[in-house]
């Protein structure tokens, strides 16, 4: 559950009560590189689902598929093609913005030093932080300018992907809500709507974030 796309997929599954068998993949010991896992996903990435023998890789494809095939409310990924197109706008945009920039900040400042034991230069951290801030500012001033959710007045799969990405830099000590009231209200709104699943799936994120100065942690979440 340290993977943003995995959290988004599990949030959707739990919120919609889709029956599933949850199989965790231990990336730290290389379970994603085994021959068994390669049969499911030769790209060696998570998440991946096996729906009665039908394999779907890539988190965006997974949630689109589940929206089509399972009995879920239409607001998640509406059948109306124009509404779908507006959701797809964000999903396509996020790859080189929300996902890329929040992930790279987390990797450069937190994950890579944890793995290698080497501290990156302040200049490199600053460069990645600036890119992330530009993305967060666009979410604040464009995507959430006049609506409670990324795409209009109802929660969609775009919100799940977006919010899980914004949770990631908290583990590296950055609060994505700083001076961003729209982002703050949106993240709180998603958390409230998705609980208790939201807090459960973010347990490890929150535990790490409590040790990172400057990050935000829900008021009712226990300190460690």
From TrEMBL:
Coiled coil ranges: none
Database matches in InterPro entries: Glutathione-S-Trfase_C-like, Glutathione-S-Trfase_C_sf, Glutathione_S-Trfase, Glutathione_S-Trfase_N, GST_C, GST_C_Theta, GST_Theta, Thioredoxin-like_sf
UniProt keyword terms in alphabetical order: Cytoplasm, Transferase
One term under GO cellular component: cytoplasm
Subcellular location: Cytoplasm
Ranges of residues in domain GST N-terminal: 1-74
GO BP: glutathione metabolic process
EC number, as in UniProt: 2.5.1.18
Pfam families documented for this protein: GST_C (PF00043), GST_N (PF02798)
Record GO terms (molecular function): glutathione transferase activity
Catalytic activity: RX + glutathione = an S-substituted glutathione + a halide anion + H(+)
Major location category of this protein: cytoplasm
GST C-terminal domain span: 80-212
Gene3D superfamilies listed in its UniProt record: 1.20.1050.10, Glutaredoxin (3.40.30.10)
PROSITE patterns xrefs: GST_CTER (PS50405), GST_NTER (PS50404)
Family to which the UniProt record says this protein belongs: Belongs to the GST superfamily. Theta family.
Subunit structure: Homodimer.
Protein name (Swiss-Prot/TrEMBL): glutathione transferase
């Amino acid at each position: 559950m340290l993977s943003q796309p995995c959290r988004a997929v599990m949030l959707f599954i739990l919120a919609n009560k889709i029956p599933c068998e949850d199989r965790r993949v231990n990336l730290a010991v290389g379970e994603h590189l085994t021959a068994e896992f390669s049969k499911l996903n030769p790209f060696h990435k998570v998440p991946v689902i096996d729906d009665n023998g039908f394999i779907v890789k890539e988190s965006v494809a997974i949630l689109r598929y589940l929206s089509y095939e399972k009995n879920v409310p239409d607001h998640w990924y509406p059948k109306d093609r124009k509404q779908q197109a507006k959701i797809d706008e964000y999903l396509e945009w996020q790859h080189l913005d929300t996902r890329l920039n929040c992930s790279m900040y987390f990797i450069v400042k937190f994950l890579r030093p944890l793995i290698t034991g080497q501290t990156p230069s302040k200049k490199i951290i600053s460069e990645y932080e600036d890119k992330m801030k530009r993305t967060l500012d666009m979410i604040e001033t464009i995507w959430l300018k006049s609506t409670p959710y990324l795409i209009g007045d109802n929660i969609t799969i775009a919100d799940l992907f977006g919010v899980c990405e914004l949770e990631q830099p908290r583990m590296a000590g950055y609060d994505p809500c700083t001076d961003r009231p729209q982002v703050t209200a949106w993240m709180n709104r998603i958390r409230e709507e998705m609980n208790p699943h939201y807090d459960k799936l973010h347990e490890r994120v929150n535990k790490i974030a409590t040790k990172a100065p400057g990050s935000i942690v829900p008021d009712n979440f226990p300190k460690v």
